[in-house]
Here is the input.
Amino acid sequence: MAGAPFLLLSIRGEDDAAADEYAAVMRFAGLDTQSLHRIGLTDQPLGDLDLADWSGIILGGGPFTVSDDPATKSPVQRRVEGELADLVASIVASDFPFLGCCYGIGVLGAAVGASIDRSHSEPVGPLTVELTDEGRADPLFAGLPDSFDAFGGHKEAASVLPDHVTRLARSADCPVQAFRVGANVYATQFHPELDADGLCTRIDAYKNGGYFAPDTAETLKDAARRRPVTHPMAILRAFTQRYGR
Here is the structure.
C-alpha cells in the first residue's frame, strides 16, 4: 500500500505477544513493514506525533486497564495512559481514523465520557458478537454476519456510552463490544487481530496475569482451537482499505 503508513501502538512488554500482535495486524490488514509501523509504548515514550504523517492509528490490547486503582499503576502505565489520553483527545477532536482493540475500549471510552468499570468482564476465549442496527450499517462492520464468533478476554468494559457515541456490537455478557465516535474513530472490546494461534500465544504470555487460573491454560487453548474464528479480521482489512492514502 503506497502513501502514508498506518501506525500500531503497542502496550505489550512481553516480546512474544508484542511480535505476534504486530505480525497478526499486518497479515489481516493486508499491510507490510513499510505500511505498518510500530511503537512499543512500554519501551519508549510516544513523543511528538503528527497525525498528518499517518493514514490511521491502531491501538493494540495488553495488560493495562484504565479502571485500575491509580495507586497500583506502575510509572510506565501512568506515562502511557497520559500520552494516550492526549493523543486520543486530538484524534477525537479531528475525527482522525483510529481503531482501538480491547484496551482501546477503555482508552477511547474514558476520553469520550463512557463508564468504564469491571461489571462486564469476560473470560479468555471465544465469544459470540452481535451487531446492532448501527453496526450493520457501518462501513467497517457491514460485511460481517449479524452474529459472529470472536476471541476476547478482559477485566474491564464500557457499561454505559454517552448519547453521542454509536454502539455497533454487543455480546451476551458485555453490552458494548464495539462503538464509533464521529465518523472515523472506533474501538472494539473483542480482538479483531486474533485467531486461535494468536490466542494461544497470548495465553502463554499472560498465564500469570490474573485473567485465568494458570492451570487452565491448556484447557483454554483446546477450547480456542475447537471454535473457528474467521470474521473479525475483516474489520482490520476494511479499516486499511477505507483509510489508506
User: Anything to note?
Assistant: The chain has a mean pLDDT of 95. The CA atoms of residues 28 and 94 lie 26 Å apart.
